[in-house]
Write the structure tokens for this entry.
Amino acid sequence: MDILWAALGDILSPGNFGLLLGGVVLGLVVGVIPGIGGLFGLTLLVPLTYTLDPVAAFALLLGMASVTTTSDTIPAVLIGVPGTVGSAATVLDGHALAKQGQSARALGAAYSASMIGGLFGAVLLSLALPVMRPLVLMLNYGDLLAITIFGLTLVAMLSGQDQLKGLLAACLGALVACVGLDPHAGEERWTFDLLYLWDGIPVALVFLGIFGIPELASILNRGGVSQEAEGQDRTRLRQGIGDTLRNWRLVLRSGGIGACLGALPGVGVTVIEWIAYGDAARKRKPHEAEFGTGNIRGVIAPESANNAKEGGALLPTLAFGIPGSATMSILLGAFALHGIVPGPRMLDDHAPLVITMILTIAIANLVATGACLGLTPLLARIARVRGTTLVPVAMVFVVFGAYQLHKDVMDLLFLLIFGALGIMLRGLGWSRPAFALGFVLGHNLESFFFLSYQISGWTWLSQPLVVLFLAVAVALVARQILKGFRARAGRTRVPPKRADLAFLILLAFVFAAGLISLRTLPFSAMIFPTATSALALSLSLILIGRSLLWWKKPREITAWAIGGDIKFIALVCLLSALLLAFGHLTGTAAFLLIIAAIYRYRLPHLAGIMVGVLAALWFLFDLLVPQTWPAPLLF
């Protein structure tokens, strides 16, 4: 108890508490800008802590890292663009609620669930530290592979009535994750002789393209986020908080999922949020809305798990120096910078610092939630802004979020490629979450599979935990497929879209070509993508055959929808070209002037947007984190 009071006094001292608040503010700013993420903030802050004592340094670092998954909810709900990859599941129901004029309710539920989940994760961390080491050491790569496959089976619950398309989308995502140098033999796979692709395709680009570009195009086509009048934001906010409190069992269950899975090295935040979302979706009550159409539980579950996972991810980091997430891997660098060696003796040698870290996570979540709840009535008004104003501004930050990754023209090219793919998947009714989940899990699946096979051959399939998780995964998929057949029984079969059949044929050719190209690679480099390509080719041929059997008069996508999407892609191309030609500030100003001419902004309206956007870009990329941008092509 004396250690607890001493740690509390340390963290609440004016200097340390001020640094904690500074970290929280930076974390909220970083989280709200699509494509930036917590890694960006930690990379910025770690060198700045060199002259600080450990308590002050980790107050700043953990204060920032703990809250990016709180503020990333803002763009996810209001414009359907995940602020970080950890808010992709929140987009489904959160943005659907915003379209219905209930953005304040969704934000209130998300913030309160994030706070409770973050506190719950900190409590579990404090209770589990003494016993965590032997439990985590019991898990081997086969167990982690089974857990990852279990997470992937949730695709079946997120793919509407057509589970085969969902599984095919997941396979496509897993194959995209294989692009680059393979992690075992160092062989090139589908890099097309581009040095840019050696490290694979960045996760942020995929998520911004698959989720951000299609949703912004949709908002522009509709004319705004919400087609319904939204008012009484404070009442809606209280309603959202009440929703969280009424679903306290879901909050604690999802928080437990986040904390426990966060403690497993290699199971990232994206996997955790989908597992929590899928768990909530399986237990939907009959009177509730379908998940993905505006069910408030679809916001509460992933947000609870997101913030709880930070406490869980800190467990293996402190207990034996194995980072539980990418954020924690950077935190290990901070430990080394301050001469601290994580491991079994951490609790003995640095017990006050460990308690201080736990308190930092708890206090940061309280402060961040209070700040976000206070701003919610103001933020909710964004949902009532005209699409012709909101979308160009959001587009600027989405493009900058992509371009700042490598400051390479290839960043913009792949943003457009995945944006077009996202629009196609949305238009044809395919599951974008399934693709995203397959992409994120692809690296883990390949790594865990190869290591399991290398260590124990095929005997890993007989391990008890592996048998349990794989059995549950197979049962879940079978149950969902049977439910789909029963739901369609007695109904008229829906004729396929001609564009859908063409897309399936294109995918079949791509998978076949991928199989042929893998033949010359070593076993370690080709086994996983070959197996995945064969499964994907089989699924695509089954779907093609089914489409031909069900063929009637084909349905088409409405021309106006395609026209609106093409117009939006053209605007993204225009912004990218101006950015490359004139630089980040001048190019943005030129883009806003062209947008003002197209949509006939009034002069005060244009001046306000111009000053606000350019000031935000200058503050973030020139003042706060000075960037070395490539020289503009015209200068």
Summary: Residues 580 and 632 are 6 Å apart (CA to CA). The chain has two domains: 2-77+87-491, 559-624. Residues 559-624 form one domain. The mean pLDDT is 77.
